[in-house]
Amino acid sequence: MKINDINHLEKILGIKFSNKILLKQAFTHKSKSININLNNERLEFLGDRVLGLVIASYLNDTYPKDSEGTLDKKLAALVKKETCSKVISHLEIDKFLNLSKAQKQNNVGKRKILGDLCESIIGAIFMDKGFDVAKKFILKIWSENLKKTENVIIDPKTKLQEYSLKLFKKLPEYKFISNTGPSHRPKFKVSVSIEKTKSFIDYGSSKKNAQTNAAKKLLDHLKVT
Fold it and tell me: Which residue among 41, 44, 116, 119 is the active-site one?
């Protein structure tokens, strides 16, 4: 990453980094460096936790009458990869990502890559500037999403889990079946079932996506809305 790119990124993020290497690391995908001290995996791990704490604290202060379960659903919707991906896409900085040629062509996995980038940037800001600056950054770029937390859509996996626990006191059973396709465009196959139902199979670009799709198929069969 050139110095002009770093300066441009700092301007977009609104943060001047003391340690420029952290910013460069945040934009380095593991497909370009397997060294954990050079790619963004560790920063992603850290940023994920900082993000969770900031959003959880915000929800706790903003919705004092909400139950723990409701707060948990709102948190899950706000910090999931899809949301992180959308938030960071609005900044239009993905062009600075250091990716392998195969990953640049990975349209299916782009959402996860951008979600990871978002968490990596948060991790880098936390490492360089501390919690208060990271918190300010998160609340700023999440502002539009935070306004929409009154009406949170519960994802199919959570809905199926609640349904199964309420009726049978058991969690849904997910089974991994296969993983096919090239590394930059994988296709996961999983099944899910609950008490007194057959298994329902579906696919996705990740295990989580496949599980979500399978859960939705089972919910549709059960006519649970």
Answer: 119
